[in-house]
Design goal:
The protein is an all-alpha fold. Helix content is about 70%, strand content about 0%. The chain is built from 17 helices and two strands. A two-stranded antiparallel sheet has the order 1-2. β1 and β2 form a beta hairpin. It is globular, with a radius of gyration of 21 Å. It starts with 11 loop residues before the first strand and ends with a helix.
Length: about 325
């Protein structure tokens, strides 16, 4: 569900109003020079993202969209997703909301825009808005099990377990025998807490060569408290996915359980060094936790200050910060 990063918005005047997305042009032909310039600005935006210059990246993506000459094709949509992401990273939250809204206005069935905006609302602590967008994503795409599990996880994090469970039960219906079907069904069972059924489905998927199922098996064993199998499955997964940030985080948690804090911190920091990890928030929270375990309260306090700037909606972290300030 989560792409490495999505984004971009087109600015043009239409009936006296500025829109991020122009109307679909009736003419699909492209001016060669304009296309060259659009791609160049897009690459500039990506370069600035990598450098951490998110404001500059947003500007470059806007410049790219200006070169589209009112044509909307997959390239422009991709740029709009990138722009929304860097707007968020630069602190322009309202700009990101506007970009997602313009994507939705262009295509009311764009479940990705609903989902990503819902996640942004959630990170800002705006639960009602988050729920509305997440459920809208499911409404326009009822068949995507991966979307269903992602939405269910986020609803669960907001304490909406009943809604999450309803979505997971619906995702399981219909069955399926392909590795992807078995993996997704198994993960849905995992999220429901039905670990035996989860393992049965995930074992079948892994046996058919689905390596992602191995990662979910690791999470299932972790939930069951089987540390030996938990670590074994993560190691197997990492052997096939060198540098995967979810697996690195999982291995770090295993090291925490055994008191190997230096190794755990090294794994977390390796994952944090990756470009735009999908589980960035979890990695940052675990880094802080490890620093606390090692009694490095000054380091934990510094990291928490930065964390709360990025995730102001995390009330538990805010409480923990008050504790850290006393250490």
């Amino acid at each position: 569900m989560k792409r490495k990063s999505y984004s971009l918005s087109i600015i043009m005047t239409l009936m006296g109003v500025l829109f991020c997305m122009p109307l679909l042009s009736a003419c699909s032909s492209r001016d060669p020079q304009a296309l060259t310039d659009e791609l160049a600005y897009r690459q500039l935006g990506l370069n600035k993202m990598e450098q951490g210059d998110y404001g500059g990246a947003a500007e470059a993506f806007s410049d790219a969209l200006d070169e589209s000459l009112a044509i909307i094709e997959p390239l422009e949509l991709d740029i709009c997703y990138y722009k929304a992401k860097v707007q968020e990273l630069s602190g322009d939250i309202q700009g990101a909301y506007d970009t997602y809204q313009n994507l939705i206005s262009y295509n009311k069935k764009d479940y990705k825009a609903y989902y990503l905006r819902g996640c942004l609302h959630l990170r800002q602590g705006e639960q009602e808005e988050a729920k509305a967008d997440l459920l809208a994503a499911i409404k326009v795409n009822k068949t995507d099990r991966s979307l269903a599990t992602n939405v269910a996880e986020r609803l669960s994090s907001m304490g909406m377990q009943s809604d999450a469970n309803d979505i997971l039960r619906q995702a399981i219906k219909g069955g399926g025998t392909s590795p992807a079907d078995l993996r997704q069904i198994g993960y849905a069972y995992y999220l429901l807490g039905e670990y035996e059924l989860a393992r049965q489905s995930l074992d079948k998927a892994a046996g058919q060569g689905d390596t992602t199922a191995i990662l979910y098996l690791a999470k299932t064993y972790e939930a069951e408290g089987n540390t030996e199998q938990y670590e074994k499955q993560y190691q197997t997964y990492l052997a096939n996915h060198d540098g995967d940030t979810v697996a690195l985080n999982g291995m770090a948690l295993a090291k925490i359980e055994t008191g190997e804090y230096e190794e755990a911190l090294s794994l977390i920091q390796t994952a944090l060094a990756k470009e735009q990890p999908d589980n960035l928030q979890e990695l940052k929270r675990n880094e802080i936790a490890i620093l606390e375990y090692t009694l490095d309260f000054a380091g934990a306090r510094e990291k928490m200050e930065s964390y709360l700037k990025d995730y102001p909606g995390d009330k538990e972290a805010a409480k923990e910060y008050e504790f850290l300030k006393t250490r």
